[in-house]
Specification:
five-stranded parallel sheet; alpha/beta; four-stranded antiparallel sheet
Amino acid sequence: MEGIKKRILVVDDEQSIRTLLDYNLKKADFETIMAADGREAIEKVRKEKPDLILLDLMLPEINGLEVCETLRNQSINIPIIMLTAKGEELDKVLGLEIGADDYMTKPFSPREVVARVKAVLRRTSPQIQPQEMLKQNEMATLKVGPLTIYSDQYEAYLGDEKLEFTLKEFELLLYFVRNKNQVLSRDVLLSAVWNYDFAGDTRIVDVHVSHLREKIEENTKKPIYIKTVRGIGYKFEELEIK
C-alpha cells in the first residue's frame, strides 16, 4: 500500500485473537488499534477514527451488535466486518440488518481476514488509473428522479436531503442505478457488490435492499424505485416524468 497506512480497529475479548490479527495485519502493512470490549471499542472509534473495524460479536460490557448499532445510529459509517463464533443464521442476518458490511465465522484464516479487509478498503479508496479517469468522471454524478448520487464522494441526496449509507448499501445503490431498468438476479448482485465467496448466501442482498428501500422509498410496501421481480431478483426503475 502506498501513502498513509490504513488503520484497522480490532475488537475481540480474546487476547490470542487480537495478537493473531495484529501480527497479520501489520505484516500486510496496516496499522492496528486494539480493543478488548464494546465500551472500549466505541471510545477508540471516536478518538482514533479507524478506516475499518473488525468487530467480534460476543463481547463483554457491550456486545458487537450493540456496538454496531450505536455507531450507525450516530451516523458513523466506518466499514464493519463482524466476527462471530456462532453459526446461527439469526446472528449473521441481524448483524447485517443493523449495519455491518460483512461477517466472518470463526475459525477463520488470517489470510482470509486480510483479503476481506483489503477488498472493503479498495472500495473505500478506489485506485483509478489515469486512462480511466475521464470515464470515471463522466459517471461521477448520477441522477434518477429526485435522487442524486455522487459516486466519487460516496454521497447521495434525495432532493436536498443527504442520505446516510453504509459502504455496502452505497455500492449496491450505485450498481442498481448504473444498471437501471434491468432485471438483476440476486446472484448477479452478490457477485457484483460482494466480489468474494459468500457461499451463495443471497439473504445478504435482501437485507441490504430492505435498508435501501427504508432510505429512498416513501412507502417500502409499495416501492417506486427498487422493484422485486418474483423468483429472480430486483429491478431499479427510473421514474417517468409526466
